[in-house]
Amino acid sequence: MVDLEYLNNINLVTIPQMQRFLGTFVLGPNYNIFQKVDIVLENIDNIPKGENVIFAMNHTDRFNYWPFQYKLWRSRHYPWTTVWVKGKYYRNKWLGKGLDSCNLIPVPSLGYLIEEFYTQKYSRRIDRDLYRRVRDAIDGKDEGTEAHNANIAETIRLFGDGFIDFMRDFYEKILEKVADLTRIALFERGLSLIIFPEGTRGTQLGEGKTGIAQVALHTGKKVVPIGCNNSDQVYPDSLPFARTGRIVYRIGKPFSSADRLRPFRIEEPFQLLSRSSQQQYKEQFEGATKVIMESINELLDENYRR
Known about the structure:
Blueprint: H1 4-8, H2 17-34, E1 37-42, E2 54-57, H3 66-75, E3 81-86, H4 93-101, E4 105-107, H5 110-122, H6 128-139, H7 146-159, H8 163-188, E5 192-195, H9 211-219, E6 223-229, H10 231-234, E7 245-251, H11 275-280, H12 282-297
Parallel strand pairs: 1-7, 2-5, 2-6, 3-4, 3-5
Antiparallel strand pairs: 6-7
Helix pairs in contact: 2-3, 6-7, 9-12
């Protein structure tokens, strides 16, 4: 389970040797020998040289950041990268170790944590209806209604009294640690950060979550939008082996809180990814997210657009 102890043991480095190893001995042969994968970084000059950035990319398949990372590495002109990765991918112990060695940042969602605590207690996966009731109780959805009171009672029955407050506090601490790792990546290790604002995979661009906007407004780092086209045809399933094909990463012009995101700029310091900041600056985060998602949408082929 990706908890505080797990996150405290994440050790990000400036030059991730495992990325170099995989690029040399796995991705290179896959793309160039065993299959023929044409990876195009269109408008690569839009990526600033000599500084790290936040890449905002649509998420069409499990592996669509791999060819992008590989191509950046081969160019030799840009910093190494880290990626925000879903907590659920760490359920497999060996996959988790592999992701850690590749210098990635796990981002456990509240849903993931609920599922993990339930599995620990009952040794089985929680069903969707039960999950929804617990989640609504923790989120305080329809507070004061009969349905909300019933959800609270069900959550207490499943997890015991005090679980709702515990989970809210626990999730807040998890996000604090993710925020710390993000700052370390950007300011101490000099890494660029790849974020999929949708938070989940989909062929057509979905709605964006505000995490990327918070990072951009908090750090002042430039956002570089990336439209990924056709990676889902090269990686059509859950196997990490590319098929022959052509992937086009269309790269947009960078922007930040100094220009395109300036209308949403927050002058006073705020706590990154905290519940209080999300409540206080909701309009700014949502406005900046909309700009980021629109910038990605403009870079996509028609069949990947909203």
